[in-house]
Design goal:
- By secondary structure, this protein is mostly helical.
- The chain has 9 helices and no strands.
- The model has no long low-confidence stretch (mean pLDDT 92).
Length: 186
């Protein structure tokens, strides 16, 4: 494990323990048994540490989507449903199981367009690869239509009806993908 990976590992451990607002670069350096200036060889400042941690944590919680493994016999609408549900469920579980990391992710994903764009691009590209759909505008639309169930700004509204609500919303979206399947057959 290289030094940057060790920094990320320790930063995540401390965030989970204390919450990101209470973690300092001094805490991270002390835990690693290095000087604080040594951290600056790898990261310019605390914000860069949090940005890197946010991106790597996002990649970890969405690993099932990168790449998404559709079943061989699935229809296009089933692939889209399962992909979107996997995204939503991954975020829901992360919110429930690691609220401190989710808070960090939320703060930086909402505030930093670079992180938001990275997130959007990686998800849309994953969905494109899973479905074979090259119309990225349509895939972005699907992503945004499902945002009630995966966008961190809505997390406080996620409750025991989460999957039931998702399935109800999917019934409104599904006809579009069935239409695409019909167009392919024609």
């Amino acid at each position: 494990m290289n030094t940057k990976e060790k920094i990320m590992e320790v930063a995540e451990k401390l965030v989970l323990k204390k919450g990101f607002e209470k973690v300092t670069l001094t805490d991270i350096a002390s835990e690693l048994d290095i000087s604080q200036p040594a951290l600056y060889k790898h990261y310019k400042n605390k914000a860069e540490v949090w940005e890197s941690l946010t991106t790597s944590w996002f990649d970890k919680i969405t690993a099932k989507l990168l790449p998404f493994q559709a079943k061989a016999d699935q229809s296009l609408s089933e692939i889209c449903h399962d992909w979107l549900w996997t995204l939503c469920e991954s975020k829901y579980q992360a919110y429930k199981e690691a609220p401190e990391m989710f808070a960090l992710y939320t703060q930086y994903a909402l505030r930093d367009p670079k992180i938001a764009d990275y997130h959007l691009d990686s998800m849309v590209n994953s969905l494109s690869e899973a479905t074979g759909i090259k119309d990225l505008t349509a895939l972005r639309a699907l992503y945004f239509l499902g945002s009630r169930y995966h966008y961190s700004g809505f997390a406080s509204r996620w409750d025991e009806h989460f999957q039931e609500d998702f399935e109800s919303a999917w019934k409104l979206i599904e006809p579009y993908f069935r239409g695409l399947e019909e167009e392919k057959k024609a």
